[in-house]
Every structure is written in structure tokens, then in C-alpha cells.
Amino acid sequence: MQIDEKLISYLEDLSYLALPDAEKIRMTADLQKILNGLAAGFASGQEFGTDGVQLCSHPNVFRADEALPSFDRELILKNAPVKNDEFFIAPKTVTE
Asked: Whole-model pTM above 0.85?
């Protein structure tokens, strides 16, 4: 994949940024180095033999589900500006 000015402009729009021209040039070079490094890493992975290795798309899907202790509720609510006995109370953000 080639990093070009069009892609950098697209990333600017996605991230709501307005980069100066010098930063765009530097970002283009940096992203190209990152992609080249990733491509080289994937290419070197072809050296490993995977014959006989079973594919698994969801490892540990059948692990035991166990309840673990959580944080102390009183400690978490201690610094809340508005709360009741169990929850934070936040202002309503959706109106009808």
C-alpha cells in the first residue's frame, strides 16, 4: 500500500485535524515506514512451518466463567459529586 496525499487528507478528515504541510510530509514518510515494517514482518512469518497446526478463530471460547472480586463500591462512589447508595447520578442528556 502506498501512502499518498489523498490518504493523509482522508485521515485528517476522520480525525478532525488540520495538519500543516510539513507535518503531512513527515506523517506520510512515517506511515510508509510503519507499513513497510509490518509487511516485512508478515513476509518473514512465512518462514515458520504451520503444517499440522489446527486453526482456531476463537481461542479460549470455552474457558470457565468465574466471578472475581471487583472494586469496593463505597470507595468508588466516595468522590462522586452526586450519588445515591449504589450509583453515580448524572444529568439527563436525552430530551423527549
From this structure: no
